Amino acid sequence: MTILPEKKHRVKTRVLRKTLDPLFDETFTFYGVTFSALPDLTLHFLVLSFDRFARDDVIGEAVVPLRGVDPSTGRVHLSQNISKRNMQCESRGELLASLSYQPVSHRLSVVVLKARHLPKMDITGLSANPYVKVNVFYGRKRIAKKKTHVKKCTLNPVFNESFIYDIPPELLPEVSVEFLVVDFDRTTKNEVLGRLLLGLNSPETSGAKHWAEVCQNPRRQISKWHNLSEY
């Protein structure tokens, strides 16, 4: 559970094993919360299935606004249905990437500039904590992987991070660069917000065209916005 919108307070119950009807009966106390701030706060409950070997799976979530709740009258009992966590989006957003190839040094420069209009991930409607994974493939084999820093609480992150890869010119036709925009989540599995593939075999025309321009214009840094697709 956490208190929105700041997400400064975060607590969790113990794990109850082998049950679909858990009874927790646990108490948490939050300090530094003023009475006047209560109408602007919301309790966000995330129900998880514990996994010893991987990140916990999300069963569902519930949001309880505190507007209209007056705890000064005594103990207040609230109930809320648990909703399945679904990505609340029609579009996956866009990514601005810049590439150039230096034929003399055999170096491919990839710059992740920024993204915009990324989707909200859950019913809280809060911004994601995005970062970008950059994977370089030769054919179907991944030959390099890197990632940017995480940008907190934004759907329009600015990265401005560059990566250099050593690639002989004769391999360029078979090389592709994959960008995965990922929402970092400290509690659960990181979710992919969207994907972009640049290369001659890109499923999107814009991805193949951008890659062709890079190959045909050595030493020129070529930047383009691309729509992200579902991963």
UniProtKB/TrEMBL annotation:
Pfam families, per the entry: C2 (PF00168)
Gene Ontology annotations of biological process type: calcium ion-regulated exocytosis of neurotransmitter; vesicle fusion
GO cellular component, one term: axon
Residue ranges constituting the C2 domain according to the UniProt record: 1-80, 91-226
An example Gene Ontology molecular-function term: clathrin binding
Taxonomic superkingdom: Eukaryota
Keywords from the named record: Repeat
Protein family according to the UniProt entry: Belongs to the synaptotagmin family.
The protein, known as: C2 domain-containing protein
